[in-house]
Amino acid sequence: MNDGHTVVMSLKGESVSEYINITSGGLHGKYRAVQLHFHWGSLKENGSEHTIDGRQFPMELHVVHMNNKYKTINEAKGHPNGLAVLGFMFKVSDADNTNYNTIIAALKNISNDGSSVDLASTFCLNNLLPKMALLSKYYRYQGSLTTPDCAEIVVWTVFEEPIPISQSQLKAFVNTLHFPRNGTSLLKMTNNFRPPQPLKNRKVYASKDATVSHSAMCSASSLLFPLSLALLIDQFSGPT
């Protein structure tokens, strides 16, 4: 779905047991995936909402999970540990990432605000992500939503290994989608990201395999254990 701000893909599951779940790695409880969405810049500017060692990336994927203790995402938003979001950066590569072909092809059908399409395909979410062996490098902090009201209710996990995507695939996001119509003007959906915010007093924890200098993180005693991602074959009802 083009929700007027980004591409949102809903994750279907007949029961809690059929959802994609994450646990461990310092998380308090089990979280199930409910949707994923993207943030990007323009063809001339990067658009990730996080930086890694000061580097910003062209695009960022967020996989949004809610705590299994809660029945709805609105209920989860009322609690400090209600949501857990996995953040993945993208880097531009020479070749297309064929795992994204179905998503890229569907963008033309959701060009305008409010439009949606069902993807008949069945996805394995981990095909959209870096290889499992590379997911041991990540960072964790307690933060906020990046869209209004920016409530401080999110446990963020940001992965170090970027996802490759070609320039033409990135261009499809930048050139195909539009923001809500402003009068008679139809504006391309670019720079739909919130700039990185000051850390203030937040602590950023690093997994033991993370490579960014730990002097910028917490002490070694605060390093995270491996995160368990049960990335099962599931169905996307989107972009919806």
Automatic annotation (TrEMBL):
Pfam families associated with the record: Carb_anhydrase (PF00194)
Domain Alpha-carbonic anhydrase, residue spans: 1-208
Cofactor annotation: Zn(2+)
EC number, UniProt record: 4.2.1.1
Catalytic reactions of this protein: hydrogencarbonate + H(+) = CO2 + H2O
InterPro entries according to UniProt: CA_dom (IPR001148), CA_dom_sf (IPR036398), Carbonic_anhydrase_a-class (IPR023561), Carbonic_anhydrase_a-class_CS (IPR018338)
Keyword line: Lyase, Metal-binding, Zinc
GO CC field: plasma membrane
Entry's Gene Ontology molecular function annotations: carbonate dehydratase activity; zinc ion binding
Domain of life: Eukaryota
Keyword Lyase: yes
Family (UniProt): Belongs to the alpha-carbonic anhydrase family.
Function: Reversible hydration of carbon dioxide.
Protein name per its UniProtKB record: Carbonic anhydrase
Origin species: Pelusios castaneus
